[in-house]
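One-letter codes give the sequence; the integers encode the fold. A sample entry reads:
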Amino acid sequence: MKVIPYGRQNITEDDITAVVETLKSDYLTQGPRIAEFETAFAEYIGSTYAVALANGTAALHLCAMALGVEEGDKVITTPITFAASANCIRYCGGEVVFSDIDPDTYLLDIEKVRTLLSASPKGTYKGIVPVDFAGRANNLEAFRALANEYDLWIIEDSCHSPGGFFKNADGDIQNCGNGNYADLAIFSFHPVKHIASGEGGMITTNNKELYEKLLQLRTHGIVKNDGLYTNSIEFAGGLDNYPGWYMEMQNLGYNYRITDFQAALGHSQLLRANEGIERRRHIASVYFDAFKGQSFIKSQSGTIEGHAYHLYVIEVNDRLGLYNHLRDNNIYAQIHYIPCHLMPYYRGLGFSEGDFPHAEAYYKHCISLPMYPTLTDGEQHFVIEEIKRFFS
């Protein structure tokens, strides 16, 4: 039987042509394809700026650096996410403070964050990292209002939600990562994501100062701009102007660059992103209708509108039994995620079972079903029938 994974990339002939053309060009890295991808992605999301990077984790790390996270800074995030959402704070020496999820949406519960903030003096916390888990958008208008009250910045982890959106109080569509509410937002181009470039990531923002910091930090902290140099023209080896070879490392940065052929692949995939989102939403609607009224299954609450559906998660009582049954039938469902605070590293920092009961209860029951645009109707029907057969 053909294996049906929980997610997979779709590489077309157009994608292959875009990559091959780039491989035959003069640039494999630091060339024009990167800027083309950044410009197209910013336009798609609706942000002013976009910075392409090696992966989503690099994007998170540079966001924390650009916002000045340092030793002892406390930052709030959800325990139901991939570890990088929290680790980026630790990379900078900051202190991760987890807060529980809403048991129906699986997103960071804003009321629990409010309670956490109100229990300490203003200035105790520096920022919030909400995660658009599974592709469902956080209400960032509400988070922004709360953040403003406590002088906090926001990094929106949108790795699951390019093309996702919520509606603000005026009823206007707000795309995930558009920069209207978060200071910075990040995306991932891992193969199971909506847009695949092998590995890759993107930061979006409307803040010019942060954008310029990110450009430096992406490439070792080096600048190549006459207007920004601090050493003299004479030192640089020029006469009236800085010579063409000159550059300065002004901050401690990293080599987090993406390659041109990865950017070419990402840009090619971006051209059919809307088509992929529509297919994902259709698949979600079929799952929802198939399991509606079934007492043995709980689905993430909310409507399909605005949901990017990187994942379709259900909760069941016999998760291990279902997982094994599906694998026995070549359906490779997955679990997203083991709560971050119960990973051995974070247990070592003082977290323990019982800290976040909603997140922990969710983990005991969650399972992600196959969700990707090339999943056929027949394959999805097979998945649904096998789930029903197991519970019957």
Summary: The two ends are 23 Å apart (CA to CA). The chain has a mean pLDDT of 97.
